[in-house]
Amino acid sequence: MVKDLKDLKVAIVHDFLVTLGGAEKVTLALSQIFPQAPIYTLLYNPSLGKDLPGKKIIVSNLQHLYRWFKLPSKFLLPLMPQAIESFDFSNYDVVISSNNSFAGGILTTPETLHLSYCHSPTRYLWDATHTYVEDQSLPALVRNYVYKMLHRLRIWDRLAAGRVDKYIANSRYVKNRIQKYYRKSAKVIYPPVDTDKIKPKDTHSEYFLIISRLVSYKKIDLAIRACNMLKLPLVIIGDGPERQRLEKIAGPKVEFMGWQNDKNKIEYLKNCRALIFPGEEDFGIVPVEAMAAGKAVIAFNKGGVKESVINGKTGVFFNQQAISSLVTAIKEFIDQEDSFKPSQIAKTASKFGFDRFKEEIIHEVSKHNK
Asked: Can you spell out the DSSP letters for 21-48?
């Protein structure tokens, strides 16, 4: 029997609600579309409650280890498959997982539709396994154990992918990754960006901007060294385990602002000269936010950013994650700066707004409810 959308019992699943990043903002958007849906998650930081007013959050049995024993999430990895499978969704018509690690591995009945909005097949289980392990700087014995653990998780992840009824990818780039690692097709629906809340500004200050978690794969060090070399001011918004190392290599014109709320972040975007985006991302919400503010993006020419930034019109690409390549791109931007029109850049960003996302998600749910 086909149910009206408003009568559907919907649940949302998210891997970890511990910080507010791009994937979490997608979950917030899904929660706006389905306001009565509870959110299931493996780990939850109650400080995010202000962003989820009135929402029912259901946590796994790992929560007490995370909150009371202060165990970092990476030490809980072997326990996560069992924890995500312990959630019972038998009373729901539709479950939407916002997934980049474990949320896609839930168990559902044949009568329950499982749509997985996939931010990316888990990188540390697939293409980034060796980089992930080497970055931990572990003793040989421990390193061997971690490789074996990831091997077991990779087998589970591949089997869990078979439980998903329909994959939704956040970019064509991720669609291709889903096909490669899971051998499943996916519909592309770009993430929602609050483009309506960001108005373009024609003027700018002299600083270049980075907004990012400070972790190694984001390649923030490239931007710091390039701006050091060119003696250009760089403002960095964000925090993370790499901050201390990055501060040591930063020149006098590099400023670390730490975490900033959305209001402050938007002001920095509106007033920057350009956004620098040196990492490889599956989509990249921040570049779209920068374009909504009318600012060009200087980005590494790989990943989902190629689907939002137009080289020479809304930004400049560099082809190698090397200081010399980024320096060349920054110089190219400066030489062509007058050709980047804020109103035209903002217009390009407008197609990634919330209303479009809502319409496409509802269409997918309706299509599979017939």
From this structure: -HHHHHHHHHHHHSTT--EEEEEE-GGG
162 is written with which tokens?
A: 């078979």
Neighbours of 111 (CB within 10 A): 8
Coil, strand or helix: which one is 75?
A: helix
User: Which residues make beta-bridge pairs with 115?
Assistant: 96, 166
Q: Which pTM was predicted? A: 0.89
pLDDT at 370: 62
- What residue type is assigned to position 125 of the chain? L
Q: CATH fold of 5-192+353-368, please?
A: Rossmann fold (3.40.50)
pLDDT at 66 over 90: no
Phi and psi at 32, nearest 5°, equal: -70, -40
Residue 368 has pLDDT above 90, yes or no: no
In order of 93, 111, 188, 251, the CA distances from 287 in angstroms are 35, 39, 18, 24
Alpha carbons within 13 angstroms on the beta-carbon side of residue 267 total: 5
Q: Which amino acid is at 10?
A: V
Whole-number pLDDT of residue 1: 45
Fold exhibited by the domain 195-352 = Rossmann fold (3.40.50)
Q: Which residues 6+ apart lie within 8 Å of 41 measured at CB?
A: 13, 14, 15, 16, 17, 57, 58, 59, 60, 103
Residues 108-138 have pLDDT tens digits of 999 999 999 999 999 999 999 998 898 888 8
Beta strands across the sheet bearing 39-44: 57-59, 39-44, 10-17, 94-99, 113-118, 166-169, 186-188
Chain region(s) in the chain for CATH 3.40.50.2000: 5-192+353-368, 195-352
Percent of the chain with pLDDT over 90: 82
Residue at token pair 């060294």 = 225
